[in-house]
Amino acid sequence: MTFAARLTFENIFHSYGNGAATLDGVSLSAEPGEVLCLLGPSGSGKTTLLRIAAGIEAQTRGRVLLNDREIAGPNVFLSPEKRSIGLVFQDFALFPHLTILDNVRFGLTALSGAETMDEARLALSRVGLEHHAGSYPHILSGGEQQRVALARALAPRPAVLLLDEPFSGLDSRLKDSVRAETLAILRQSRATAIVVTHDAEEAMRMGDRIALLKDGRLKQLGPAEELFQAPSDLFVAGFFSELNLFRARVRSGRAETPLGVFDAHGLPDGADISVAVRLSGIEAHENDGDVEARVISRRFLGETEALEFAVAGADNPVRARMRRGALASQARDVWLTARRSDVLMFERGGESA
Ligand code: ADP
Ligand code: MG
Fold this sequence. Notes:
- Helices cover 23% and strands 35% of the residues.
- It has helices spanning 46-54, 100-105, 113-126, 142-154, 172-189, 200-206, 224-229, 234-240, and strands at 7-15, 21-30, 35-39, 61-66, 69-72, 85-88, 160-164, 192-197, 209-214, 217-222, 243-249, 254-257, 260-263, 272-278, 282-285, 291-301, 304-311, 318-323, 333-338, 343-347.
- It has 8 helices and 20 strands.
- The chain has 2 domains: 7-234, P-loop containing nucleotide triphosphate hydrolases (Rossmann fold, 3-Layer(aba) Sandwich); 237-347, no CATH class.
- The radius of gyration is 24 Å and the shape is globular.
- The strands form 5 sheets. Strands 6-7-8-3-9-10 form a 6-stranded mixed beta sheet, with helices on both faces. A 5-stranded antiparallel beta sheet has the order 15-19-16-17-18, with no helix packed on it. A 4-stranded antiparallel beta sheet has the order 2-1-4-5, covered by helices on one side.
- The longest helix is centred in the middle third of the chain and has 18 residues, at 172-189.
- It is of the alpha+beta class and 353 residues long.
- The structure holds adenosine-5'-diphosphate and magnesium ion.
């Protein structure tokens, strides 16, 4: 077992040569033994950052460090096999003509034949697939193939493991269990892990901390609760929750919106702000609440229900997500209340959702 290491990106810039910046000054560290989720929309630079860490892409500027040792930068460029960093590709990248055992052995080039056999079997047993050593990839399920890819990356006992959208190819019903198994294996291996995803819920399920990227820039880094409860801007807020948006101006420390008047604590008087109200933060009752509304539409979604309301002063229908049965099915004219903890405010200008 290797000791977990800290992986640090120091002011990383990158472009693929067409001039556009893929990564624009990214600095972050994954702490020893931590599972860090790298979250962001498609095209935000997540895969590129992993490729730079793994050594299959070189940054234009900045440094990558393993503990305090520079592994890529102005002075050094260690080849991928010298970095002690494993990478699990998005499509698993198993060799179809090699057995499962040989697929796992593939990552162990530094060892002699007999040793690779033992190490590969050990790695397979850690993901619970010893019995498939002699099988070929095509007979395995998607979840099992993902575990083989994980075993192959773990076999050389890397200090850091990078996983690029490891669950995106899986059936949604499989995802939960494969995710839980993968997390358990990562914890057992004690490796530092960076898991890439574009799904905020997945990041919250997997990550000790989450780093959110947008257009090659780090927007916010912290525990899930922090990004959810105290998002640094509207983009971060919108990535974690569905929002109703209103524009308002702060007057006497308060902001007036169609859903009520809210304390604008901290924002200066006269500021032009966006007020974001989480869909899940709106309650509807037949007899009391803050503002009058009329039900426009309701859609049954199983545990929850999606509703739209007409509210005076709102240009668009106000959307809400409520527990099924929370509002009587015949309700038409109702009262809405927005919970203050689900109301977020940001100064406008520069940043947009
Ligand atoms: P993500 O993994 O977050 O979807 P990527 O790192 O794959 O983002 O891509 C970031 C940006 O770089 C995108 O605009 C993408 O089109 C571009 N890009 C990715 N790979 C290449 C490449 N090999 N050549 C040129 N542009 C690329
Ligand atoms: Mg990608």
